[in-house]
Amino acid sequence: MVTMKEVTGKIPVIVGATGHRDLRDQDLGALRDAVRAEFGDLMTKYPNSELAVMTCLEEGADQLCAETALDMGLEIITVLPVPAGEYSERFEGDARRKLNELMGRSSKTFVVPHEERAGIYIAEHCHILLALWDGSPGENGACDTAAVVQAKLRNRTSGSAGEQLRKNDGVVVQIVAPRSGSDSTCMEAGKVVIHGDEAAGSRMLRDTDDYNKDCGSLGCTADDKLSAVYMVSDRLSIVNDIKDRRVLIGLSVCATVLAVAFLLYDEAELHWMIVLCGLMIISLFVINAFTRWTGFNARYVEYRMLAEACRVQTYLRTAGICREVTEIMPWNLQIEIPWVSRAMSAVTAGEKAGNKNSVLNMWILDQRDYHRKALMRTELQLRRNDRMVTAALIITIVTYVAALLFETVCCGMISGTSMFAPETNDAVRTGFKLCMGVFSALTIFANNYYGRLALPNVIDDHRKMVMLYEEAEREITDKGEDEALLLRLAEDELCENANWYAYQSKHDRGLGI
Known about the structure:
By secondary structure, this protein is of the alpha/beta class. The chain has helices at residues 28-45, 61-71, 84-88, 93-104, 118-125, 145-154, 198-216, 225-266, 273-294, 296-318, 331-336, 338-348, 360-410, 422-453, 455-479, 483-505; strands spanning 13-19, 51-55, 75-80, 108-111, 128-133, 171-176, 192-196.
């Protein structure tokens, strides 16, 4: 039996395994070496991620990949087309013995849901597909290796909206595997051929590995994988949001100090202020380079999207709805952050919906109250910012009026006779200039910091979410917790999250101040 491991918030990198059953005996050594090399390469490239091999354990290629994975200390996940007892009756002799042994050593064994074909399910839920395949096109309508490869390359997910608009980021690593009795004199057994967008697949795996590296420092565990991923992604999004806001404060403060220092240099003739101006300019570029290198804002919004997807998936599971979030996730999210979609496929693989429970309080009412409170906080923050800007503007206007009176009455602009000595007039003028400049700089600070947070957009988002949950509450009160209604609510919530992501991901944190 497999020892139960501690459930962490890390996303497993799923390698799907498929291939021919009738491999040639003389090729087995070369094929094992090639499979071992591919697994080892993935482990080296993505050291923060746990590799798991998903397979049907069919005779031949599937069992070869599973045995190699176990020899290397990797987990195997077994996907069955029918219950285990019925499935084993399809095997004979040594193949049946291996099947039963490998199922016993699997970290998870389950029957594919929705009467879907097991090979297609693997293609849809793996990050990368390893195919021991001779490259032949196969037969139309068959569920053979060629069909599984094509399903992966098309990146097809059953029943999902926007299927035709998806980015084709499926990657297949073919290990050339001649079949027994075939004319394969020109084939080199064990040769590796890459199909699909390798660059896009590598980016997806790097993003996944970066997330796993970040979550490694938190040490969060839970009773199940979905809960653990939610806890980690939620906490990571908060941490990166705090860091991103600190960057905004740093940029805004440096810009304000730069404006004030230049005024003091120019008007008060404090010549040493030119050094402070230079330090602030350098600081702006350093902070800008630092935030682009660390990517706090990008991590914040992407981890937030992962957390929200986990939360919606939890609600669906609690409501007893057997649907995966990836089937209803907006297509633009799947294009722009494919690693999140693939992460959800990996996390939910083999998971079943629980018994039907009410989600009115834990989902609809809870989220309605959350967005109401968030709306009130953001409106208060916006009013505070408006008061700050208004006060600075009023002081600037008052200063201007005072300066105008000083010039017209005291300096003789009208009468031609000054009430004070020229040195006194120059000192007062400098004071007025500095006062107006300082409060103008403070206005720049407020608008730069709070403007980057886009408080009106945040308020609008919270208002829409409050309306969404209030309408859902009314419909549930009238019709009950109907599955179609809850699915529509889940889609609407994911769409609103996608709109929020689209804005935040384009929100530059650079030097446009």
